[in-house]
Amino acid sequence: MVLEMKGLVKNFGNHRVLDGVDLHLKEGEVVALIGPSGSGKSTMLRCLDFLEQANQGFLEIDDIALDMSQATEREALAVRRKLSMVFQHYGLFANRTVLGNVTEGLLAQKTLSREEAEERGRQLLARVGLAGREESYPNQLSGGQKQRVGIARALALEPKAVLLDEPTSALDPEWVGEVLQVIRSLASEKRSMVIVTHEIAFAREIANRVLFLDEGKIAAQGSPEELLENPKHPRLQAFLTGMLGGVSDRG
Amino acid sequence: MGSFDLTVFLRAFRTIMRGLPVTALAAVAAMAAALVLGTLIALVRRSPQAVGKRLLTAYVSFFRGTPLMVQLFLFYFGLPQLFPALSTIGPLGASILVMSLNGSAYVSEAVRSSLASVDPVQMEAALSVGMGKSQAMARIVLPQAFRIAVPPLGNTFIGLIQGTALTFMLGLRDVMGMAKMGAAASYRFFEFYLAVGLVYWLLAAGATWFNRRLEMRLSLGHGGHDGA
Ligand SMILES: Nc1ncnc2c1ncn2[C@@H]1O[C@H](COP(=O)(O)OP(=O)(O)OP(=O)(O)O)[C@@H](O)[C@H]1O
Ligand SMILES: [Mg+2]
Questions:
Q1: Distance CA A209, CA A191 (A)
Q2: Which of A121, B3, B209, B213 is least surrounded by Cβ atoms within 10 Å, i.e. has the fewest?
């Protein structure tokens, strides 16, 4: 097991956004998290990466086990160093080059020397099809290129699991394919991933397991076939019909 | 009615330039200290659990809300009456100290608003690649904030240069002090004050030029003029 989270509760003020969510992720597994807008998908990933502090919840990841509501800054840092996040709006460092974005975490943590970090950075950039753009700055890239840098940056740290929050939903349609292609290649090399997505067809293609988050709870989960082709849960049926009916996730 | 005398003017210019090292030292030292102090103030005022936050708000408000001249007099003539130990600090030290405090109030406001304009995702992304909070601040957020803060910080610097003109009242031989003495000795007020005005103007123009260049360099570091 790469990661096991139990009983995650998160309130914003007196609004309970997550109400006892469990998640486990096996080595090499891809879990797709789907659900209506506002159901708490992003909040769940953010709590996992300690960008939000949970109100309740227990997390085990690698050799760490902790109460998520009591975690110190130190423990949060230790968890973050085992996970990587790919942000919906990229979140590339504006004051770093493309290569600098990928190596920044390695250099800040001093895991590698500059030469080794840059070597790894260049390899990863080549993998996501961005060889030659090392010295560009983020604002010189298209959305699809930015997100591919975001993915390379996440991989640089050799995380136990990659968390992706709607990695394609901020993109113009023309760039979605290239980013999905990169994610597909990660799945095929058995990277452990949790991906929040509104691309149902893509979830069906790459996920080993699909979770349907609704009103702060996991309302249904199962294999993509069970869950997406034969939904039993009425809210899930309604959700999928809405999606197929062309409701776009590009808000 | 006298008339404008070019040789007097040029002589005035030369006399005044002897005050330049003091003016430059006071302005540059005060700006350097103000940058450090002002940035620290901005960071402390931003952090959620800061104890001294109210005190710092009052500090910033005081130094921005009172004339520099009053601050100089208060520190140089007033405080030593309460704390005699302070009288050992000379006029140059007192000027630099007061202008540092004064400048830090303006710097902290500039840094505070530029910090607020950095996208919060920058901090989150930095945390997510395994940086601690202060590391994320130092490597990612502050550099971006400084880039935004360069124009207002340039104004603060020009303000400090002009502020040094008041320090002659503490007996400092800065450019203004030299001009005042030269004018009083020769009764050539127009030539001396015109020359000193020109010196300040040139200093401000130099600072503006430097500021523009810095701004350009930093925005090139971002690959252009728009944000990320
Ligand atoms: N920082 C915050 N402060 C207050 N409320 C918040 C905050 N972040 C999220 N929320 C609320 O929590 C709920 C869940 O938000 P979240 O962003 O996790 O949903 P989501 O499932 O990711 O939605 P989407 O599909 O639109 O991205 C929403 O009602 C949102 O308004
Ligand atoms: Mg979301």
A1: 14
A2: B3
